[in-house]
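Hello Y.,

Per our agreement to keep a running log of every chain we model this quarter, I'm adding this entry. I've kept the format consistent with earlier entries: sequence first, then predicted structure.
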Amino acid sequence: MTDPAPAPTVQGTTRLYAVLGDPVAQVQAPTLMNPVLAGLGIDAIVVPVHARPQHLDAIVNGLKQVANLDGLFVTVPHKAAVRRLADRRSRTVDIVGTANVLRREADGRWLAENFDGLGFLVGLDEAGHDIEGTRAALVGTGGAGSAIAAALLSAGVDRLSLYDTDTARLTALAARLRAHWPDRVHTLGGPQLGDVDIAVNATPLGLRPDDPLPFEPAALRPGSIVADIVMKPHETRLLREAAARGHRIHHGIHMLEGQLNSYRAFFELR
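Predicted structure for the entry above:
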């Protein structure tokens, strides 16, 4: 048996990081980050904060005043909205329009960054999936989906097809991406993904057992990679049905695990 991960100790000197989401029961950042922090001997802890959309501004502005809070992790559905609450934004955030972390700078201002796309690529690479030159399709162009779309293009996918029920959001992201990767970005009128090598669910569909499928895995070509960014449950209905049809599946937790080193560097957790 392996030794259990060290438990974090909370005391008066402890630095705080909050995970903002609605809901938050599914978030995995505290589960993964707190043992890492404890193992490194860093006096800090990551805690979930349930933030309703109508309260987001008040919660973020209030947390900014907490003197021992150094950063925010951001999940569904706040990744687009939180961008405007930052004082500074990285180039990635400006391209994709969303952020998943905010850091308090030395001058007290807040910097927004997005590591979802990089984490997704790291997860794919560590699972042995080479996507350069492939055809990819992504359903869901919100917080994580926008970052994943840009990352897939940066990694060299030959063609990226996008679909979202929010046509305004879909059109806006496609325009931003085409400014950097012309002729490789295409939009779909429905979740019929066609002949692709990798299909990605970047929607929240799958969080609940009665959710419909974001797309039909039966329509994909044999042996496609089907990736889901939903982290809890580990096996979504989409992944179960895709595996039953012989597709290669890729779980949501890999995206978060792929971001851990980026988080440590961004927040200077050493």
